[in-house]
Automatic annotation (TrEMBL):
<dbReference type="GO" id="GO:0009089">
    <property type="term" value="P:lysine biosynthetic process via diaminopimelate"/>
</dbReference>
<dbReference type="InterPro" id="IPR012080">
    <property type="entry name" value="Asp_semialdehyde_DH"/>
</dbReference>
<comment type="pathway">
    <text>Amino-acid biosynthesis; L-lysine biosynthesis via DAP pathway; (S)-tetrahydrodipicolinate from L-aspartate: step 2/4.</text>
</comment>
<comment type="similarity">
    <text>Belongs to the aspartate-semialdehyde dehydrogenase family.</text>
</comment>
<keyword id="KW-0486">Methionine biosynthesis</keyword>
<feature type="binding site">
    <location>
        <begin position="160"/>
        <end position="161"/>
    </location>
    <ligand>
        <name>NADP(+)</name>
    </ligand>
</feature>
<dbReference type="InterPro" id="IPR005986">
    <property type="entry name" value="Asp_semialdehyde_DH_beta"/>
</dbReference>
<feature type="active site" description="Acyl-thioester intermediate">
    <location>
        <position position="130"/>
    </location>
</feature>
<comment type="function">
    <text>Catalyzes the NADPH-dependent formation of L-aspartate-semialdehyde (L-ASA) by the reductive dephosphorylation of L-aspartyl-4-phosphate.</text>
</comment>
<dbReference type="InterPro" id="IPR012280">
    <property type="entry name" value="Semialdhyde_DH_dimer_dom"/>
</dbReference>
<protein>
    <recommendedName>
        <fullName>Aspartate-semialdehyde dehydrogenase</fullName>
        <ecNumber>1.2.1.11</ecNumber>
    </recommendedName>
</protein>
<keyword id="KW-0028">Amino-acid biosynthesis</keyword>
<keyword id="KW-0560">Oxidoreductase</keyword>
<feature type="binding site">
    <location>
        <position position="252"/>
    </location>
    <ligand>
        <name>substrate</name>
    </ligand>
</feature>
<dbReference type="Pfam" id="PF02774">
    <property type="entry name" value="Semialdhyde_dhC"/>
</dbReference>
<dbReference type="InterPro" id="IPR036291">
    <property type="entry name" value="NAD(P)-bd_dom_sf"/>
</dbReference>
<keyword id="KW-0521">NADP</keyword>
Length: 350
């Protein structure tokens, strides 16, 4: 009998993308697909795989008969309900940050560590943060060949990484500044936004339109942010390198969707640009855009809405042995969230 899949948070931003992914798959292994959301969304009709389905309210009984439950909800909701789903017999695949660093919960990227889906003592599997995921297919492939030793990353993160609030704020700032020639003095952009009636409070700590903001996530010790520590801790866990040296700087940029990362990766064994290109070309979920002569490389605007990881600007680091520099782009709502979560479910049923 074909397994039953549930999507918890089916009416949210990531849940909506997940339904789009399922609808566009050539085939799916599910006998039934159950849509679950808050009481506010219960009763809504959504068509999945040509069948109109009714969203049911989140409750313990909603998981009865479910084999795999995909959670696309805030941390606190997952923390409460993923264990309940597991108790009712479902394998919970969680896209939030609630369980990522739990030693009894595997953190899975199917291109890198698919075997970990079988090691789930709590009945829960975690999906990594979207920033980490944007580079993990590329790093995992290189690590298998050359042995990753050190990693320095600068991320350029889209406004959608801050949720709908981030998207709405960037749109509002762009609209407020449209057609205006804003001065170049410090504070001119902020003054123009205030004059347009935008509230001073923003999810980005500073104006994002016509700007970049070197801060993403919440404040942690010694000047680090939660996003930067996620890159470090999650990379170590996914790749199985507990002593991997990692340093990350996360920057918010005025892009709606798709994260980009500049990666500086040092390996145990010698590696050339040509070897790296060959490794990337052999990966079915990586698209190589690395034509230096014609200046063809990935950009967020060229990648948004796409499932693969895009890699380009591959260079041999000038002053660092066994080291490559390259640029990665990945849609943070697809591979960075919904797609990887769904791929974990596909990996489970194998």
């Amino acid at each position: 009998m074909a397994p039953t899949l549930a999507i918890v948070g089916a009416t949210g931003a990531v849940g909506t993308v997940m339904i789009d992914i399922i609808n566009n798959r050539e085939s799916v292994p599910w006998g039934d697909i159950r849509l679950i959301a808050s009481a506010r969304s219960a009763g809504k009709k959504i068509t999945v795989r040509g069948v109109e389905r009714t969203v049911v309210e989140l409750s313990p009984e909603a998981f009865d008969g479910v084999d795999i439950a995909l959670f696309d909800v805030p941390d606190e909701v997952s923390a409460q309900w993923a264990p309940i789903a597991a108790e009712r017999g479902a394998i919970a695949v969680d896209n939030s940050g609630a369980f990522r660093m739990d030693p009894d919960v595997p953190l899975v990227v199917p291109e890198v560590n698919p075997e970990k889906v079988r090691e789930r003592p709590k009945g829960i599997i975690a999906n990594p943060n979207c920033t980490t995921l944007s580079m993990m297919a590329a790093l995992g492939a290189l690590h298998r060949e050359f042995g990753l030793k050190e990693l320095v990353v600068a991320s350029y993160q889209a406004a959608s990484g801050a949720g709908q609030e981030g998207i709405d704020r960037l749109y509002a700032e762009i609209e407020a500044l449209a057609g205006k020639r804003v001065g170049v003095r410090a504070g001119d952009v902020a003054e123009a936004l205030a004059a347009a009636g935008l509230p001073e409070e923003t999810p980005f700590k500073a104006p994002l339109a016509m700007n970049v903001v070197p801060w993403a996530g919440s404040r942690k010790d010694d000047g680090w942010t939660s996003e930067e520590l996620k890159v470090r801790n999650e990379s170590r866990k996914i790749l199985g390198i507990p002593d991997l040296k990692v340093s990350a700087t996360c920057v918010r940029v005025p892009v709606l969707t798709t994260h980009a990362l500049a990666v500086h990766a040092t390996f145990e064994r010698p590696v050339t640009v040509e070897q790296a290109r060959k490794v990337f070309q052999e990966q079915p979920t990586i698209v190589l855009q690395d034509d230096h002569e014609n200046q063809v490389f990935p950009t967020p605007a060229g990648v948004v809405g796409e499932d693969p990881t895009y890699v380009g600007r591959i260079r041999q680091a000038l002053d660092f042995p066994n080291t490559l520099d390259f640029f990665v782009c990945g849609d943070n709502l697809r591979k960075g969230a919904a797609l990887n979560t769904y791929q974990i479910a596909e990996t489970i049923v194998g």
